[in-house]
Amino acid sequence: MLRVCWKGAHAAARQCVCGKVKAHPLQHCRKYSTAGDSGSSAGKIVAASLLSVGGGLGGAILYAKWDPKFRANVEKSVPYSDQLFEMALGPPPPPLVLLQKKPGKIEPLQIFSLSEASKESKQPKDKAKKSDPAPVEAPAAVEEAPAPTAQTLEGEECKDHHEPELKERPAEEVTARLAQQDKAEQDALAALTAGLEESLGSTAKTTLQAIGAQEAALTAIAAHTNKLKEAMDSETPPDEKSSQWKALNEALSDRTRAMEEAEEALLKAKGELENLRGVINSAKQSKINTARPQILAAEENLHSMIVDLDKVVTKVQTAQTEAKIVSQYSELVNEAKAQFQQELANITPETQANWKGLSGKLSADDLTSLIAHAHRRIDQLNRELAEQRVREQIHIEVALEQQKLEDQKALERAVVSTLEHSREDMRLEQEKKAQEVREVMEAEMRTQLRRQAAAHTDHLRDVLKVQEQELREEAQEILNSKMMEQETHYRRLTQEQLDTFTLDMNAAYARLKGIEEAIDSHVIAEEEARKAHQLWLSVEALNYTLRSAGADFPTEPLEGAVGVIKENCAENEFAQALATAIPEESLSRGIYSEASLRARFYDIRRLARRVALIDETRNSLYQYFLSYLQSVLLFEREQVAPPAKLAPEDLDTFKLLAYANYSIERGDLELAAKFVNQLRGESQRVAQDWLKEARLTLETKQVISLLSAYANAVGLGTTQAP
Amino acid sequence: MSEKELGQKWDHCLADSAIKFGTGLGLGIVFSVVFFKRRTWPIVFGTGLGLGMAYSNCQNDLRSHYVLHSKVAKEQ
User: Fold this and answer.
1) Is the Cβ–Cβ distance between A333 and A310 less than 8 Å?
2) Quick one: how many helices (H) and strands (E) in chain A?
3) How far apart are CA A500 and CA A493, in angstroms?
4) For chain B, what is the domain count?
5) Who is most buried in A31, A183, A472, A636, counting CB within 10 A?
């Protein structure tokens, strides 16, 4: 039946599928046929949509190019649009707001530092600014004053060298500034002193050089003058005269050279002095107090150098005047000599200029003419002398006046210079005095400050002592209170701990007891379970032995298995009863399986049908033949479902056999046996053995099923749910 | 096996009938030949006799179960 159904279903399915397959191509064809007409309109629609989309995109891109805000909006709202825009337009323009802040922040700090530096160092700015590099100052200044000056910086962004607002600066800043100032001062001082010393040194050198040169000139002049005097006055032999004149010339040249050198040196010295003066002035302008003594010393040095130089110069000048006088005198003498010589030459033309060589070669005429000339000259000279004597007074007066004038001039000059010198001296003295006074004042101020500081420290100490005392007391109090608290807390905790411990112990003990009981009960239960399990296993073994039946031969004798069961349930009466209820035959010989009984039934059926008419009354051979004929000619259903109740007409052999066949086909051996039991006559006789076997099997099976049910029940009862 | 009993009986029956038939036939032939100058009636008679005996035996055998067997009880 099932197969028929399957086949029918397959056929139907195939039909359905075929039908569907057949239907689809038509549909497709139909679709294709209609698609051709609407193709052009679809194409138009597609083209129009593409165009609109492209136009929208292009318009969006162009507008985004023009308006960055729109671009930002679109990028925010539509994902992946930023990539598209980047592809089409390039990276977005950088946000202007952020970048401007950063350089703005860095700049004011630098400007601030620069202004700070310019404000602080009102000293030789070049050196101060260069030696104190801005970054060293800037971080120091910035780190310690970021907060108070940050606000001020914000306002100075765009202005250069804006003076910062005067706010009270914290102590560290003040000390830093002071330190900075000190450092700057010291640096400037060092620079100054170095400069001063340098210039002093160079000036001194040059001045000394000048002085030396001047003195050399002086000596040269003196020498020259002496030589000249000698040359004029002495009556040395002629050969020495020439050497003398040579020496004189040398002396003259020496003098001129020395004079020149002296001049040069003087100029140089003067220049250096001017430099020094300039340096001193600039040093004075720097207003570093500590440099004052050095400045004063430099000034003194300068002054002394000037004085020395002036002295030497005056000396040289006097020497020069003397030399001039001497030279004048020498000139006059030379002039007179020359005149005389000329006269001589006039008188005695043949005599040569060098009249030294004439000493032995003069003739008498020459000598007389010479004497006459000499006499004439003497007369002239006498006359001149008389004249001179007369004019002497006037000359003397004139000379005196000249001398007076010159003296006056010299006096004035000297006065002026000495005045200047004295003024300078006084100024220097004053400055020295001022310096001393200042130092004294400073010392006094320092002592006063020290005293004040000492007083302050004393006061602070006292105050601190008092405060310390107070704080100590307070701390002690707090400590005590905290200690008390901690103590109580600790006590409470320990008590709690103890309590919890006792509780836990009790609980643990109770649990232990409970566990022990549970374990004991478990043991019992497990024992029960084990027994039940054993029973069940043995029942299963029995069941297994039932399967050992073959097609035509019975199972093994069930003795062994039943013996095991009997062993396992020695104390269980029910099981024992059941075990003993198993029929003897099955124990000794075993039972047939249901399948073999089924197979045997067909033979029985055939035979029973053939001898259906034979019973006690009818049992001749003719009846046998009739019965056989009946069985051959009677057509009936092989299997008929038996009714719930048997009516008397159902007790016909054939019907009974049909019922039995049906039952046995359905696996109901018991019902089949019941029907077979209703057979009468020869049929009954024929089915006797089969019935016996069936009965045996049924009995044994029943007992075994009871046993297994019982074992299952016991097992269920004893197993504990997980 | 009770079902095999019937079969056995029938086997027995057939065997017996075959023997009796054969014997009857033989004796009939013999008697016909020997005593009755080859007439057919002794053969037929003999065969009939044999068959009849076989039939009767068969029948008795098959109904043996239903026939009551009595015993003569010994007198005390």
Assistant:
1) no
2) 19, 0
3) 10
4) 1
5) A183
Nearest-angstrom CA–CA distance, A335 and A614: 218
Candidate from A600, A686, A690 with C-beta closest to B6: A686
Closest chain A residue to the Cα of B64, Cα to Cα:
A619
Contacts of A620 in chain B (CB under 8 A): 59, 63
Residue of chain A nearest B52, judged by CA positions? A621
Q: Which structural domains are found in chain A, ordered by start? A: 183-346 (1.20.58.70), 549-719 (no CATH)
Query: Which is nearest to B14 in space by CA: B49, B58, B45?
Result: B58
Q: Residues 6 or more apart from A10 whose CB is under 8 A from it?
A: none
Q: Are A92 and A68 within 8 A, CB to CB? A: yes
Q: Does A612 contact chain B (CB < 8 Å)?
A: no
Measured CA angle at A203 (ends A201, A209), to 5 deg? 105
**Residue pLDDT, tens place only, A581-612:** 888 888 888 888 888 899 999 989 999 999 89
- Chain B residue with CA closest to A620: the answer is B59
Tell me if A682 and B2 make a contact (CB, 8 A cut-off): no
Cβ atoms of residues A255 and A354 within 8 Å: no
Q: How many CB atoms lie within 10 A of CB A280?
A: 22
In the structure, what pLDDT confidence band is assigned to residue A115 with cuts at 50, 70 and 90?
very low
State the average pLDDT for chain B. Answer: 87
pLDDT > 60? residue A490: yes
Nearest by CB: A689 against B3, B55, B62? B3
Beta carbons of A128 and A121 less than 8 angstroms apart: yes
Picking from A621, A685, A686, the nearest residue to B59 by CB comes out as: A621
* Residue B9 belongs to domain spanning: 2-73
What number of other Cβ atoms are within 10 A of residue A238's Cβ? 12
Instruction: Provide, as residue numbers in chain A, all residues whose Cβ is less than 8 Å from the Cβ of B6.
Output: 607, 611, 682, 686
Q: How far is CA A96 from CA A68, A82, A92, A358, in A?
A: 12, 19, 12, 115
C-alpha atoms less than 13 angstroms from C-alpha of A643 in its C-beta half-sphere: 8
- A145, A186, A140, A404: which is closest to A291 by C-alpha? A186
Q: How far apart are alpha carbons A338 and B4 in whole angstroms?
A: 210
Does the beta carbon of A685 lie under 8 angstroms from any beta carbon of chain B? yes
Residue A159 has pLDDT above 50, yes or no: no
Structure tokens at A567: 């062993």
Q: What whole-number distance in Å separates Cα of residue A600 and Cα of residue A95?
A: 104
